[in-house]
Write the structure tokens for this entry.
Amino acid sequence: MRTLVLASSSRYRAELLARLGLPFERSSPDVDETPGPGESPTELVIRLAQAKAAAVAASHGRALIIGSDQVAVCGDQILGKPGSVERAEAQLGALSGNTVTFQTGLCLLDAASGERQSEVVTTPVRFRHLEPQEISDYVARERPLDCAGAFKSEGLGIALFEAIGGDDPTALIGLPLIELCRMLRRAGVPVLGGRSGAWDPERRLRELEADGIVADIIFPDGSQDNAAPFQAAEGPGAIGADHALQAVGAWAYNRWLAEFCAHAPARHAGIAIVTIHDVDEAVAQIAWAADHGLRGVLLPSGVGSLPFYHHPRYEPIWAACEERGLPLHTHVGSATPDYGDLPGSGPLFAYESLWFSHRPLWFLIWGGVFERHPGLRMVFAEQGADWVPDTVRIMDNMYLHMFRHEQKRLSSR
């Protein structure tokens, strides 16, 4: 995900932003907040929000920068910071029974592209009629001497109010989260999951550029919002899957992926889905994928009730991949058992997923597939490499002590 930076030293804004559950950094901008000649409150808060974001963007060249500023207005007067107890009490006395309008400026700046979103959120607050003793007690307890209007709406100042209007209660505290969420979604950072870059090729390229990534390998992944329809990528063992619909889903996904990758073929390597219950259809899917610029084939790690990959039925698939120069790739899919919703189920899946993802390789090696198809390649992405030394050691041991004996036994039949 893109790095988020909050251009503010306010702990209240930081606490608000933390509600969204997104990781972020903080940086204090050095901006002169003096109003310009004839500048309206709306113009002021927009300008300062943008200026704060721009000041921080200079040192965070690939981040999304959040800038915000707020003024309180009573009538036609911008409320300043009182600076002393006497002026604070006088300000609150003037506000008693009146309505104060908060103007909160918000800016989301993409430091990589320069794209900027800005908005002003208005929040009217009606003060109740305050007794002099209440005002003195409030100022003594909260000391709002550095706050415009002499109150802290995020603290005890809420006790001064009769009513709060507006569409976003967080705007009153200084960071309108509803509007910010809209901006983040448009920038490809949905707060509730998903990534528009998974299906928007222009957004995908901007994200790659911002993250310093030269190219990526794309395969179906539900956690990244680009899963194939009808469980097409999960293989024959997917619970409740209809094999005919899986084939339809594979064709649909491959067509979409080819169009997506065609926007920037040097930056995207698309991995096509093949459905192995019908070998002739799998061969057709492989040929189509190669003809339309896809760069590999996703082989289901689990085969359900079908024979495993050392069986002769799959020879046309290996031959088609070898002829077309498409490497095989695996991902866990539905190969791991379903451990239910029990303690340890999640860690068990994660712990075993690599084992099941690598399992087809063992069948291809021991089944002699690579000897019969020397041009066939197999590539593993997103699966680490720490398993390779142990796998080679175990396979050497198996070859020396079991495989040669098995070959003799089978040849004597």
Residues 85 and 139 are 7 Å apart (CA to CA). Residues 387-411 form the longest helix (25 residues). The mean pLDDT is 88.
